[in-house]
Amino acid sequence: MSLIALISDVHGNLEALRAVLKDVEEQKADFIYSLGDIVGYGANPRECVDLIKKNCKHSLRGNHEDAVLSEFESLPDYREEAASSILLARRLLQPSWLVSRNLGRQLYLKSLPSNCEEGKAMFVHGSPRDEVHEYLSSGDIIILNLNSLFLPDEMRDAYLDEPEEYEKDMSEAFLKLKENFSIMRDASKDVCFNGHNHVPGILMDVRGRYELVEKARRGRHKIKFLDGREVFADEFVEDYALIHTTSIHDKPFQLGGEKTVVNVGSVGQPRNCDPRASYFLFDEKSREILCRRVTYDIKAAADKIRANGFPNLARRLFEGN
Ligand SMILES: [Fe+2]
């Protein structure tokens, strides 16, 4: 039984990765698992690939690895700035007589699997249903409640204007949650750790495992489980609960037998309005998880991204968005 550090979405941000690796060492984690997207966006894909290869017991493939290794010239699934940053990473990782170590880096990226598992835990970049490309995150529960405090006003207004559009999106979100948690149930997995959307958070399917929910008009809902544990959820809709990591930051969270998806956030491009790097610790013995946020030299990382011609990506590092 080990203490596992779960990192994801490093995205070529060497300063953030070094700071996280230092924190992982201080926390005395036994192993590090990387959940994909080592490259893209940031200025140091080569150095990040080398550090992940050296330090991680398991390393998974993300959609940015797929895009960098793809033989297609254009990347229609990505926004312009993301596509340009992927093309830059592709160039920087191109094997040549000048950078002979790139051959090894490319072979390493090509060798990455799309999942791994340990006991009742599974690890992917995207979701159980689509391990590399599907986003599975807090937004999938928030959308189920049109009155959610976390639903952006402009999104709510747009849905109120077009109720058919809302019905369609809500049905898709329900189906997505149902199918992903069913896959976990069929595979006898209680917890899935993922990344991909850069927003740390905990999603739970608690059906059949709780006896009481005290719904709050504003604030968090109390869920009492059959085994006596109590959990405070930021959102609770139809047996699905959401816990934002701002609620549990640096406080251990006890996993139970309910199906739980833990999005570990992003080391190198965080997007929940907190610019610190995000990662999780998972204690296999106690089954406690801990969300860690780590400060790093954002200016150094942003200056290099700006010098590569991506001022918007550089700005987003400071905003954590
Ligand atoms: Fe990513």
Description of the molecule:
- The chain has a single domain, classed as Purple Acid Phosphatase, chain A, domain 2 (4-Layer Sandwich).
- It is built from eleven helices and 16 strands.
- The chain starts with a strand and ends with a helix.
- The model has no long low-confidence stretch (mean pLDDT 93).
- The chain is α+β, with helices and mostly antiparallel strands and 321 residues long.
- Bound molecules: fe (ii) ion.
- The site of fe (ii) ion has 7 residues, from loops.
Shape: globular
- According to DSSP, the number of beta strands is 16
Q: How many angstroms does the end-to-end distance come to?
A: 35 Å
- What does the largest sheet look like? 7 strands, mixed
